[in-house]
Amino acid sequence: MHCVAVTNASPRRSLAAHWALVALVAGALLHPLHAQGVATPAPRRAATPSSGPSSGPSSGIPADTTARETIVPGVVHARYVRNAGPLIINVVRIDRRTASVAFEHGRAKDALTGRETTSSMVQRRTAKGANVLVAVNADFFDLKTGASENNQVIAGEWWKGLKVTDSPFDTFRNPHIQFGIDSRGAPLIDRFVFEGVALAGTHRVPLLALNANPSGNPEGTALYTWRFGTIAPRDTSRATVELVMVEAGHRGDTLLYVRRGVPLGSSGNVIPPLGAILAGYGPRSKEVAAFADADTIRVLVGVGPTQSRTPLDLVIGGWPRILRDGVDVSTRAAADEGTISRNAEAKHPRSAVGFSRDSSVLYIVTVDGRSAKSVGVTLEELSALMKELGAAHAMNFDGGGSTTMVVRGKIANSASDPTGEREVGSALLVLAKPKP
Q: d(Cα 54, Cα 202) in Å, to the nearest integer?
């Protein structure tokens, strides 16, 4: 790990300018290595903090100390301390043009439900041979079950699909903002809406949810795969038909199933170990029952055609968007995404992700809070920070006691819960790609 101590000569110099300087120096140092096709980091030495004032983490306000370290080429971790506030901010800057990294959606215990600390998720992946450089907690989740509130795509597989976010705190139901990586490796921030359909011959049934019960409506459809568990959910509020289906492979982005047995006129049936349950609720139950025994049923899942023309390799949720095309939209969060004032407009520990206008640089950020050393920030202040760093697009992850950043296996921020690091539902992981 190559570490650099930075002392800023001018308090007026923007934080984005400092990142550019670090990238320029790093690029100059690494150029001879890249010319030979080798990307070997310099010998590790400890980061030394510079003392103030240096260019600050929010609009025009200087930081009093700054420490930076290069984790691998193209990935830099910085820690900023601002006495005014006070604030402690950790930033990981990832230059996709030079960094040989991959992104993963980590789920607690590798399951749709359950809770686990971010550092434990890192340890599990490391034990399996992965080189996890950075991790940050991600989506909001149910404190009892650990279930994430938003769509979930992991390694190109849809684990959970929703039309609207499954949150009890929305002031109105809507799809929350989500972070994605497409199959080309490009980052995306959008309010992804799940779309699916089941087809056999000319018979077509829309899928309104994947591994989630679209309850609260007079009718609905859902596909429950083995990721959901061993039994489909009970639903006694509506007429229900469930079909047992066995996996028959896939063709491109199309899943193939073969229907087995008679339609089951109740909910809560056993999901085959290598298969799924197709459920119809209310009037949709008749459409689901119309698939014939031994039919090969094609299932297509994805997002709306206007949201991503390229398949998504990763989707992980948050709430809400705070920057769009370089414009602060955090103040519209209550109107656009139904945020609640005690979250959006109060100072809290925060976690966030964003990227530059050309999507070449990603920023992963945590801000400590609820302590005498760092009070936290509002969403509007978080938006200003992300913009000052150089992000044009950014979104908020779960914060408060959930806020955790892990760098090289060690927790970089300070947990605000008195019991220490909180168990969460999901995390965004940055991995070094294996050398060829």
A: 66
